[in-house]
UniProtKB/TrEMBL annotation:
Binds 1 potassium ion per subunit. The gene is mnmE. This is tRNA modification GTPase MnmE. The lineage of its organism: Bacteria, Pseudomonadati, Bacteroidota, Cytophagia, Cytophagales. One of its GO terms (molecular function) is GTPase activity. Keywords: Cytoplasm, GTP-binding, Hydrolase, Magnesium, Metal-binding, Nucleotide-binding, Potassium, tRNA processing. It comes from the Bacteria. It is found in: Cytoplasm. Its cofactor is K(+). Mg(2+) binds at S236, T257. One of its GO terms (cellular component) is cytosol.
């Protein structure tokens, strides 16, 4: 493992969100965390207290009382970072928080960098790199599924899968390396047939992991869902009803929406990022035309399409033609007929040929539950078992898995061509390196800097 960092100093940061609140938490970590806290705390002697205890007292700058606080102690190695950790819970005034932090800095602490607490936890062996990244995912999770997947990864589910694959490869790599030491004696310690079988099995698992990223990305980042249709089909009204707020301007005048409007909600644990777009029509209005152009751009970037139409204004044939025209990539699409409150039974029957049609009244909010269910089914997460299935959600992990797969391909090709053992061993080492990058068994300062600087300060 390659890394360097200052871990002999004591760091401090505010661990709660900025702004006025009932309480704020100030976190310290490092060898002197307890002694620095003791120097400003009036109450029990913190140096004599047991780990995982909480103590009431005051924070004082000389004789000046800054606040009444609760101090939580976590004595090394029984803490998040495996160092001495102190958490000071004070009142949530920005003034109080800054006064306490400045006092702790004067007593010898330094301000923590972004993600430095979690970085120290990784460097001190609390968890591996994939688990550390899952901490950030857990903090940013905004749906039941994203929370569930992040929790599983933080507890090591994905890491165990990678470590198991790597351990099996390490065995064969060591056998081939051993053969190199006996190169003149023509001995074979690594059974080539077993190696081929192992590589094929590992590649099959990697393919499944890579395939899971499509779902994992949806769980982590939400489903970009574009609402398209002709002007005055009711797109803005539908968006407002789904969001349960007046997000978009609703007007009888065609072409009201000139740009796209975006917001998100969670449906059955899945985050949908809804985008209301300008109505699709030929127009001489330059601003409206730009809106239509942006609609087409958003369509190309979406993962799910809602095509909304006014069933009183179009025929089933026109709707089907528009569905085909708008969706050349064959993305999941939900056809939604609006204004059923104005439609006769005969009119409804005329659209029966549209596959998977959902009929609603956006104005009255009728059948919105049926629409939401259709959206969830289109995302195809119904059979997903987040408890047992390993799901990849991180683009860095995808890149490492692709590199591993390519290196294993080279091993198989080398075995087929009968190339020398040193070249086969080199390809196996490439695969091991790429797998090791995922869990942090192989790291560089640049890699760690790139990962942990994306964390919030205080975590």
């Amino acid at each position: 493992m390659i890394h360097s960092t200052r871990t002999n100093d004591t760091i401090v940061a505010v661990a709660t969100a900025s702004g006025m609140g009932a309480i704020a938490v100030i976190r310290l970590s490092g060898q002197e965390a307890i002694s620095i806290s003791k120097s400003v705390f009036k109450g029990k002697d913190l140096a004599k207290q047991a780990s995982h205890t909480i103590h009431f007292g005051t924070i004082r700058d000389g004789e000046k009382v800054l606040d009444e606080v609760l101090v939580s102690l976590f004595v090394a190695p029984y803490s998040y970072t495996k160092e001495n950790v102190v958490e000071i819970s004070c009142h949530g005034s920005d003034y109080i928080v800054q006064q306490i932090v400045q006092l702790l800095l004067k007593r010898g602490a330094r301000l923590a960098n972004a993600g430095e607490f979690t970085k120290r936890a990784f460097l001190n062996g609390q968890f591996d790199l994939a688990q550390a990244e899952a901490v950030a995912d857990l903090i940013s999770s905004d749906s039941a599924l994203s929370h569930e997947v992040a929790m599983k990864q933080m507890r090591g589910g994905f890491s165990q899968e990678i470590k198991r694959l790597r351990a099996e490869l390490v065995h064969f790599a060591s056998m081939i390396e051993l053969e190199l030491d006996f190169g003149e004696e023509d001995v074979e310690f690594a059974d080539r047939d077993q190696l081929r079988t192992l590589i094929s099995n590992i590649q099959a698992i990697i393919r499944e992991l890579l395939k899971s990223f499509e779902l994992g990305n949806v769980i982590k980042n939400g489903v970009p869902t574009v609402i398209v249709g002709n002007p005055n089909a009711g797109k803005s009204t539908l968006l407002n009803k789904l969001l349960n707020e007046e997000k978009a301007i609703v007007s009888d005048v065609p072409g009201t929406t000139r740009d796209f409007i975006e917001d998100e909600i969670s449906i059955s644990g899945i985050t949908f990022r809804f985008i209301d777009t300008a109505g699709l029509r030929e127009t001489t209005d330059k601003v409206e035309a730009m809106g239509v152009e942006r609609t087409m751009q958003k369509l190309s970037q979406s993962s799910l399409i809602i095509y909304l139409f006014d069933m009183m204004e179009v025929t089933a044939e026109e709707v089907q033609a528009e569905l085909d025209r708008l969706n050349p990539k064959k993305l999941p699409i939900v056809a939604v007929a609006n204004k059923i409150d104005q439609a006769s039974e005969e009119k409804l029957a005329a659209f029966a040929s549209i596959d998977g049609l959902v009929t609603i009244s956006a104005a009255e909010g009728a059948n919105l539950d049926e629409l939401k269910q259709a959206l969830v089914e289109k995302v195809n997460l119904g059979k997903l078992n987040t408890q047992s299935q390993t799901i990849v959600t991180n683009l860095r992990h995808v890149d490492s898995l692709n590199k591993t797969y390519a290196a294993l391909d080279d091993v198989l090709q080398g075995l087929a061509l009968g190339i020398s053992n040193d070249l086969v061993a080199a390809d196996i080492r490439r695969a091991l390196y790429s797998l090791g990058e995922i869990t942090g068994e192989i790291t560089t300062d640049d890699l760690l800097e790139n990962i942990f600087t994306k964390f919030c300060i205080g975590k």
